[in-house]
Design a protein that fits this description.
This protein is mainly alpha-helical. The protein has 22 helices and 11 strands. The strands form 5 sheets. The chain has a 3-stranded antiparallel sheet. Strands 1-4 form a two-stranded antiparallel sheet. A hairpin with a 2-residue loop joins strand 5 and strand 6 (about 115). Helix 6 (about 165-180) runs antiparallel to helix 21 (about 475-485), helix 8 runs antiparallel to helix 9 and helix 9 (about 270-285) runs parallel beside helix 14.
Length: about 525
């Protein structure tokens, strides 16, 4: 026997209850392994995509287990089950009806009006992701990423009744309109200038620390000793000071790439995108456009999968799985062996080989000539910098130290999502943009003087809900989002850096223990 915590339980079986916030507790049903194998092949009302429609199951159990017992066996916190219940406690109405005679057209709904994008899909700057919202209301997603000028150029092709059942979404929409009217999306160019000057100073410091001849040659009998001391000093400064400084330069340029590729600085796509390529590809060393394409999907479909695999590619790695929903995409023995120890290898991989992985990925997937030209410019300054060092051993050590220190950025990027729920991409649309973004994100608490270290990504809820807002304004809007969540019983996850790292590792360990219980293999 196995115990299944199912979203769609069989009538008359299991138990149902509600918690203090009114969320429905998923029913606990008793299911045989034979039943689970049938679901694997799309039978017994399963999803048909090879997914077992279950969150937790325990081989050998003869009766359902309570939430407390389930948590005890797996070391899960109450928050884990709370998140699972909250996912399906509020869903949006069904897709609105298309206007008569327009069924063959590709229509996207915004604020109760249909817009024909049939001939625009291939030209959409954000890519073909626009097709995911054909025949659907995309009001929240649209206004999160576009200004009023976009619709001003288009004539509606019909209307529909805009239904919003979720009061939290109503408040979110009102908040977004208020921010737009009050000018919260405008960039403080004084702040921007200071940030650019920091990057210039870091770049200059790297070259100065590498080229400056620390120490002296000495005279007479002291010449050899002085030369040896000077060489030792230069090596120390280059490896212990200059290499980490280069890493911080890469990190800050990566944050700039992120800002500009969101068009949230000058709000001019052409200018922002070119600057994104400069800071991302020329300075940071990865294809900014390749990163942007994946990042657009990440924002709209955070922590989602489809039949083909993980849809949110920025949350997809070959050597670990953050959810049991991803087990079908890790079928060979090596991958599954890695999942068993993913909580052990997670940080070492990100720190010691993270930069090399993302650089190689961007080179393998990038086909645009402009990006390759920008990448060539990157090595036009990296190669001479390394050539300024005395020997190959020092050059390789210097670059590797810089890469490892910069690997901390990869930890920053993944902490915000890795212990959060995964659902099918279609389900994420039904759950609603506001609630799904709150549920799949985590903020990092830190003093104001450490905001530079996180590049605004410590305010991840705020950034995902207002991606066009400059990062220096995110801290100010945080209190408004927290108030909405508090009023509607929505958990707003915010915790310190070390706590977030620990909780992520605990989550990865829990999922890793479950892979051995997966009856599909």
């Amino acid at each position: 026997m196995a115990v299944t915590r199912s979203k769609s339980p069989s009538p008359g079986s299991g138990r149902k209850a509600t918690n203090g916030n009114g969320y429905h507790v998923a029913e606990v049903t008793t299911t045989t392994k034979s039943d689970l194998r049938q679901r694997k092949h799309g039978q017994d009302g399963a999803t048909g995509d090879g997914m077992v429609d279950a969150d937790v199951f325990f081989p050998g159990s003869a009766k359902p287990v309570s939430d407390a017992e389930g948590a005890r066996r797996l070391g899960l916190t109450d928050l884990y089950f709370e998140q699972r219940r909250a996912m399906f406690s509020h869903t949006l109405p069904n897709a609105p009806e298309l206007p008569a005679g327009k069924e063959h057209k590709k229509l996207v709904g915004v604020d109760g009006q249909w817009y024909d994008v049939t001939n625009f899909v291939d030209l959409h700057p954000g890519g073909v992701i626009i097709e995911e919202y054909v025949g659907r209301d995309a009001t929240d997603v649209f206004w999160a990423y576009h200004g009023e000028e976009v619709l001003a150029k288009r004539r509606p092709a019909g209307t529909y009744e805009l239904e919003v059942a979720d009061p939290a979404t109503v408040e979110y929409r009102a908040l977004a309109k208020r921010y737009l009217a009050e000018g919260w999306y405008e960039t403080d160019y004084g702040w921007l200038t200071r940030k650019v000057l920091v990057c210039v100073a870091l770049f200059t410091a790297v070259w100065a620390l590498v080229l400056y001849p620390f120490g002296g040659d000495g005279d007479g009998d002291d010449a050899a000793a002085a030369a040896a001391a000077a060489a030792s000093t230069r090596r120390f400064v280059r490896l212990v000071v200059a290499a980490p400084t280069l890493a911080i330069f890469w990190q800050q340029c990566g944050f700039f790439m992120h800002d500009f590729m969101h068009n949230n600085t000058f709000h001019n796509r052409r200018i922002d995108q070119w600057l994104g390529t400069f800071f991302g590809t020329v300075c940071f060393g990865i294809s900014g456009s390749w990163w942007r394409d994946e990042h657009n999907i990440h924002h709209l479909f955070t922590n989602t999968y489809t039949k083909e695999g993980v849809f949110d590619k920025q949350m997809d790695e070959e050597v670990w799985a953050q959810s049991i929903k991803l087990f079908p995409f890790h079928t060979d023995l090596l991958k599954r062996a890695c999942i068993h120890v993913q909580h052990i290898i997670f940080l070492p991989i990100l720190i010691f080989i993270g930069r090399f992985g993302i650089v190689i990925d961007s080179m393998l997937h990038e086909r645009r000539a402009v990006e390759w030209a920008a990448l060539a410019l990157h090595y036009c300054w990296v190669v001479p910098l390394l050539a300024s060092l005395p020997d190959w051993q020092t050059r390789l050590t210097f670059y590797y130290i810089a890469s490892c220190v910069q690997g901390v950025l990869h930890i920053q990027l993944l902490l915000s999502h890795y212990s959060k729920p995964f659902v099918h991409a279609e389900d994420s649309k039904s759950l609603g943009f506001f609630r799904w973004q709150i549920l799949t994100n985590r903020n990092i608490d830190n003093p104001w003087w450490l905001d530079w270290f996180h590049g605004g990504l410590n305010f991840h809820h705020e950034h995902h809900l207002f991606p066009r807002m400059p990062r220096h304004r995110l801290s100010t809007v945080s209190s408004d989002l927290r108030d909405i969540c508090q009023r509607h019983g929505i958990h707003f996850n915010s915790e310190g850096w070390l706590v977030a790292v620990w909780n992520t590792l605990v989550h990865l360990k829990t999922v890793g223990r479950l892979v051995s219980l997966d009856i599909r293999h």
